[in-house]
Amino acid sequence: MKQRRNPSKLSIREAAWGYLFILPVVLGLAIFYMVPSAASLFLSFTAWDGMSSPVFNGIDNFAQLAADGKFTRSLLNTLLYTIATVPLSIAFAVILAVLLNQKIKGMVLYRTLYFIPVITMPIAVGMVWKWLYNSEFGLINFVLGTLHLPQPNWLFDEKFALFSIVIVSVWTSIGYNAVILLSGLQGISASYYEAASLDGAGTLYRFFRITLPLLTPSLFFVLVMSFINSFQVFDLVFIMMGQQSSLLDSTRTVVYNIWEDGFKYFNMGYASAQAFILFIIILVITAFQMYFQKRWVHYQ
Amino acid sequence: MTSSASNKASRIAVHILLIAGAVLMIMPFLWMLSTSFKSFADSMKVPPALFPAEWHFENYSKVLETIDFARYYGNTLLITVSRTAGQLLLCSLAAYSFASLKFPGKNIIFLAMLAVLMVPSQVVMIPSFVIMRELDWLDTFYVLIIPGIFSAFGTFLLRQFFMTLPKDLEEAAKIDGCSYFRIYWNIYLPLSKSALVSLAIFTILASWNELLWPLIMTSSEDMRVLSIGISTFQGQHSTDYPLLMAGAVMATLPIIILFIFLQRYFIEGIAMNGIKA
């Protein structure tokens, strides 16, 4: 009972262990994440080749970015990419989650098949799709040809290149979004449906009046995460367009531009400024979504 | 139509839709697999054939001879295993402390940690490069392993799980005079297997598939990871798709097998992630 008599000693001991246990993670996060984040903000206001000391240049980077055609193009592409990818992926994911939520056999197998694109190495995904898109030997145009449909030159046509990447992104993200939505669906109490069927409500009525409103918390999470991920797209562009492609400008995204300016041309201050702008855009969009969620998200 | 008959019809409709979707989802894989066994000439045939004319199993051994695939594999495995083990240990320790111990400033430190989650990785990429250069870690295993051990996401995930555990076992252990470390080790960890496996899977997936970080932080052949190895492979053999596909199959297969075995935890982990919102 020694401990009871000496609570202050005990709580000091508890605090000491408490600090000790969090120390490695906190220290690591500080060195590898917090310090670099702060440094990035500072570097945005400098001209820097990555070697000599950074030279403070005020808002020069930002002024220059406003007139940089490549950067504005990358912003526009990223925006188009996001606007196309997010709704398509979520719409398919909702349909898939509803189908998977039926009491049917083979659910585990279906879930596995739909989830495989999510776990595959992006490099492998990018390469196999590049091959599928190939205008001469690719499977997609062969199928389109036999159906007497137009056969675009997917990745090598300015009008289709970005959309080709959107298709692949949607394909890889449906499974992930569907699993989150599925867990949301499974959290909806059966009593709502029982009450509705007593009232003689049809399938569509039940979907739009019960399922969809009660799914909104999961939908909200999926929407926020999809936006954040879409704004950071890099891997697919890097692997599918290659670095030489003359059409790169039509698929250039912000992160691709950051990588190119920072690590190919070593304009690191300039690249930091772009990363900072991207961060602000994501922050503002996420904040907007948080703000407007009360208009459409219903918590049970 | 009776209600059971209409039920049956709707179940069949659901299956048809799901199968059609599943075919679209795995078609690229089947195509990757099929191409990986074709001869070079066969892969360029018009119209493309679903199955190889002859099965060229030697494509796989050719990949191993052409690029140093074994090394990329070994590197990726080492990085993935070390990062996963490190994260499980350090994140769970910190998560236990955040969930169960009392110390001044706990909430503020926890909030600061959550702020890390909101910064996109590209923002830290450039200063990280400089820090790694100053540490002389560029192009070493340190840069590929150590920063990846510290995870705000992992600590948050485990802390949320630990918060849901009942406190009575812990109280009893305290009265018996158990040390905090033993409570963590003998009570918290064994009760949290599913959460730990979920975190492990997320970490494995992220480490195995990572591209941008190793691309920036390493340059020598010795330090290459699978995703980079394959991407350079594409440059060297821009038209030899059968070899490329064989490499892609070999790089992807371990993760797919792991997923099939652990898929319950995958799904639980993702569902848990969704709930926290």
TrEMBL record, chain B:
Cellular location of this protein?
Answer: Cell membrane
Q: Name one Pfam family in it.
A: BPD_transp_1
The record's GO CC annotations read: plasma membrane
Query: CDD domains this protein is in?
Result: TM_PBP2 (cd06261)
Q: How does it sit in the membrane?
A: Multi-pass membrane protein
Family matches, as Gene3D superfamilies: MetI-like
Main site of residence? membrane
TM spans (from-to) = 12-33, 72-96, 108-129, 141-162, 183-208, 241-262
Q: Which UniProt keywords apply?
A: Cell membrane, Membrane, Transmembrane, Transmembrane helix, Transport
Record domain ABC transmembrane type-1: where: 73-262
Segment forming the signal sequence: none
GO BP terms in the entry: transmembrane transport
User: What's the family?
Assistant: Belongs to the binding-protein-dependent transport system permease family.
Please report the name of this protein according to its UniProt entry.
Sugar ABC transporter permease
Q: Which organism is it from?
A: Paenibacillus azoreducens
